[in-house]
Every structure is written in structure tokens, then in C-alpha cells.
Amino acid sequence: MRLNSRIILHIMGLLLLVNGGFMLIAALVSLIYKDGSTLDITLAAISTMFSGMLFMFATRKHKKEVQRKEGYIIVTFGWIVMSLSGMLPYLFTGAIPGVTNAFFETISGYTTTGASIVDDIEALPEGILLWRSLTHWIGGMGIIVLAIAILPLLGIGGMQLFAAEAPGPSADKLHPRITDTAKRLWLIYVGYTAAETLLLSVAGMSFFDAINHSLATLSTGGFSTKNASLAHWNDTPAIQYIVILFMFLAGGNFVLSYFAFKGKVQRVLRDEEFRFYAGFVIVFTALVGLMVYTQANVPVSEIHPMVMGEGESSFRHGLFQVVAVITTTGFVTADFTSWTPFLTILFFGLFFLGGSAGSTAGGIKVMRHLLIIKNGLLEFKRTLHPNAIIPVRYNDKTVKEHIVYNIIAFFVLYMLLFIIGALVLGLLGLDFESAIGGAASSLGNVGPALGSLNPVSNFNSLPDAGKWWCGFLMLAGRLELFTVLILLTPYFWRRT
């Protein structure tokens, strides 16, 4: 079967049009704030949209059918094309000089990793700051899901794209039509973003800072408009508690949010993954908060009346950093690597946890961990009763064997790619702590790492080859490995 290359290029053109449209929003903000970058961002938008129109015009006579192979190619190359075009505002304005740095910042944005190479974020023009946040927001729910909502207008079905974009174990659907599913997810996504913006504005953030941090929170991205990230508002606990709430929501399954809005709260509370996800947050917050209170030196704000003392500060910093790392948002209120060696190791372990399936979070995901543990425990029973059929059950339903095998394969590949990733960074000159931290953070789309890449530093110290390598890890992690790695296998390109 030959690849339908025309439909692939046609959808690339569509994605470029969408990307250029979002750039125009950034250009409008630049014009409002008169930051001097309006013309350059507009030129980047026009160049991107013009390229998209050329692609679409040249492939207008295409076969309107997307098979599974085309789906994988469209998703992977779609992210690459979006990242290549998305770096134009940085290059045209000179805000981030050099292709390597501009591409790193862009792919870190779209993959919602939030690792930055910018040393002075507050010196960037407002239009560029918004563009950084928009790359998060576009990538958060998935640019391909956005395309699915538009494709019916072109007479193209999107089921294959959805399968490639969300290859995880969850098969929940809100509606039998995949396009309607995408629209409902986006409605929740937009609603959460608007709600957080309003609450942050009321709590004391400027509207510009509020919208930027809302875009970064709901996408579990982590780009901030301040050099100190959320530590800039350590004297305003209300702001940090609002961000914690929406990070938690963004790290949860958006399907469960839909059920909650429909009044089916019991269905949310009965969900095994949600219970473990919430349980992890509670347990790790209690542990971290206690250790911060008794052993770590965290400054206590005396400005805001909500601050009750060192106990509240310890709890808040512990809760914030636990939620930020588990959901792979990566916002920072303190340098958790400077607290205690035990907590540094603990947070490194949380790099591999991830949020819920069906969320905007990265990482391995709670559901996969849960099913791996369940299958491991059942192996004891199977050893004692080798002839018995003992299936893995999730939410009182039997999990098919091929899903369990897929999850185990994913975990093995994930750990293998982490080890290779750390080895490559070590080969490029990073010390042990920085290499394993950078690899785990990039692959899990976390943002802050360890060593020289710690939460109060950035990735600018990486050599150029290291930035490209981390960009690959970010892409593979964001698309959950198989979608990217399958393109590297000879089998994929054989004609069948």
C-alpha cells in the first residue's frame, strides 16, 4: 500500500495556517503593548500562513483518506513542522538568536516541557512572551486534536489521527463521533483557561501575567513571564493555591472533568486512576511538607495575611512542587534540589510518575504504573496456580492482554530511552546528576531538572548537540514513544 503523501502535505499546510493564526494573536498583543516586535511577529505569521496555503493549494486534489501509517507520519512530522515554523517569531525579532536555541525553546513549548534557554525572561517583548505561552497551549491538548475538529470541514475523517495522538491505554470516548469528542475536550480546556485567568487576576496578578500563566498551567507547560517563575509571587499564597488547583485539574483525565460537569461525580470518585493520582499528591505532599518544615530552609512570607507561618509555607511549597512535578507542569516556587538529598531523590523519582491518561501531562502516566503493579502482583498468583486464568482488572473490568503487553513494552522502552538519553548527555560533557536529570526531565516533559539544570537555572548551558538531543527526547515523550519511534523502524516503511 502506497502512502497518501498528498493528504500528509495537505494537513501540514493546515497546521501551518493554524500556527500562523496564533502568531497573529501574539502580533496583536505586541501592537497593544507597543513592545517594538509587532512587525517582525506579523512577518513570521504571514510567512507561516503563506507556506501553509502553498502546501494546501499544491495538494488540493488529494485522496481524502487517512490510514494508520499516514496518521503516525502526520502526527510526528506535524509537531516538527509546527516547531520549525514556531521558531520564526524568535528569529525574526531577535529575541532568541540562533536556530538551535530558537528550535529548543519552540519544541519545549509545543511539547509542554517548559525547559528554557532564556536567561532574562522579563526582558522579552510582551508579544514574544505570549507566543511562548501559546506554544504551550496549542501543544497541551494536542495540535492534532485541534486539527481533528477542523478536518470535517475538509471532508477528512480523523479517527486515525486521534489513535496516533493518544496511543495510551485509555479508550474513553465522550461521543461516538471523534470530532465531537475533540470539540468537547477543547471546550473544557478553554473554559478552565478562562476561569484560571479570571481567578489569578482577582488574586492580584496583572491580566497579562494571568493569561500567560493560565495558558501554561492548563497545558502543564511551565513557561512563566517572570525569571523566578511562581516564586515571584511567594508573598501572595492565593495565587499559588489557584495555580495548584488548575495544575491538578490539568493533570487529571479531561474525560473525568466532562463527567463531573455532567453531574456524574460518583463516576469520578470511583475511577481507580483518579484515586491513585489524588492519593499520590496527598501522600507526597505530606512527606515533602513535613521534611521541608523540619529540615529544609524555606523563607516564609510575612506580607500576605493568608500566610500563617512556617508551617503554612512548608505545606504550600511542598504541595506546589509535588503537584508541579507530578503533572509535569514544572512551575517553581523554590529550588527543591537544595532542600535535602532525600527530597532531591524523591523529586527525581516523581519525574517518572506523570499525570493521568487523557490529561495534558507528560510522563509515564499513573494508569500505566497502576496496571504494571497490578500485573506484577498477579504474577505471584500465577506462579502458584500456573493453569489458572487470572486477568488484570481495572475499574472492575478485565484489561485485555495486548493492552498489558503494550504497557510493559512502553515502560521498557521508556526506561531504555532514558538510559540512552542520559548516556548521550554524559558523552556531551554533562556531569552525572545533570545528565540523568536532563534526560528524565526532557523525556517526561517536566521542565526543571537536577544539577546544572536545576529549577533556578535553565538549559542554556547545554551544548548545541545536547539541545537537539533533548528536543528529540521531548518529542518522543510528548507523543508517548511509539508514535515517534515506529518511524525509525524499517518495518514501518515497507510496502504491504
TrEMBL record:
<protein>
    <submittedName>
        <fullName>TrkH family potassium uptake protein</fullName>
    </submittedName>
</protein>
<dbReference type="Pfam" id="PF02386">
    <property type="entry name" value="TrkH"/>
</dbReference>
<feature type="binding site">
    <location>
        <position position="112"/>
    </location>
    <ligand>
        <name>K(+)</name>
    </ligand>
</feature>
<keyword id="KW-0997">Cell inner membrane</keyword>
<feature type="transmembrane region" description="Helical">
    <location>
        <begin position="185"/>
        <end position="208"/>
    </location>
</feature>
<feature type="transmembrane region" description="Helical">
    <location>
        <begin position="7"/>
        <end position="33"/>
    </location>
</feature>
<feature type="transmembrane region" description="Helical">
    <location>
        <begin position="238"/>
        <end position="261"/>
    </location>
</feature>
<feature type="binding site">
    <location>
        <position position="445"/>
    </location>
    <ligand>
        <name>K(+)</name>
    </ligand>
</feature>
<feature type="transmembrane region" description="Helical">
    <location>
        <begin position="39"/>
        <end position="59"/>
    </location>
</feature>
<dbReference type="InterPro" id="IPR003445">
    <property type="entry name" value="Cat_transpt"/>
</dbReference>
<feature type="binding site">
    <location>
        <position position="221"/>
    </location>
    <ligand>
        <name>K(+)</name>
    </ligand>
</feature>
<dbReference type="GO" id="GO:0046872">
    <property type="term" value="F:metal ion binding"/>
</dbReference>
<keyword id="KW-0813">Transport</keyword>
<feature type="transmembrane region" description="Helical">
    <location>
        <begin position="137"/>
        <end position="164"/>
    </location>
</feature>
<keyword id="KW-1003">Cell membrane</keyword>
<dbReference type="GO" id="GO:0005886">
    <property type="term" value="C:plasma membrane"/>
</dbReference>
<feature type="binding site">
    <location>
        <position position="113"/>
    </location>
    <ligand>
        <name>K(+)</name>
    </ligand>
</feature>
<feature type="transmembrane region" description="Helical">
    <location>
        <begin position="342"/>
        <end position="364"/>
    </location>
</feature>
<feature type="binding site">
    <location>
        <position position="329"/>
    </location>
    <ligand>
        <name>K(+)</name>
    </ligand>
</feature>
<comment type="similarity">
    <text>Belongs to the TrkH potassium transport family.</text>
</comment>
<feature type="transmembrane region" description="Helical">
    <location>
        <begin position="472"/>
        <end position="493"/>
    </location>
</feature>
<keyword id="KW-0406">Ion transport</keyword>
<keyword id="KW-0479">Metal-binding</keyword>
<feature type="transmembrane region" description="Helical">
    <location>
        <begin position="71"/>
        <end position="92"/>
    </location>
</feature>
<keyword id="KW-0472">Membrane</keyword>
<feature type="binding site">
    <location>
        <position position="446"/>
    </location>
    <ligand>
        <name>K(+)</name>
    </ligand>
</feature>
<keyword id="KW-0630">Potassium</keyword>
<feature type="transmembrane region" description="Helical">
    <location>
        <begin position="403"/>
        <end position="428"/>
    </location>
</feature>
<feature type="transmembrane region" description="Helical">
    <location>
        <begin position="273"/>
        <end position="293"/>
    </location>
</feature>
<keyword id="KW-1133">Transmembrane helix</keyword>
<dbReference type="InterPro" id="IPR004772">
    <property type="entry name" value="TrkH"/>
</dbReference>
<keyword id="KW-0633">Potassium transport</keyword>
<keyword id="KW-0812">Transmembrane</keyword>
<dbReference type="GO" id="GO:0015379">
    <property type="term" value="F:potassium:chloride symporter activity"/>
</dbReference>
<feature type="binding site">
    <location>
        <position position="328"/>
    </location>
    <ligand>
        <name>K(+)</name>
    </ligand>
</feature>
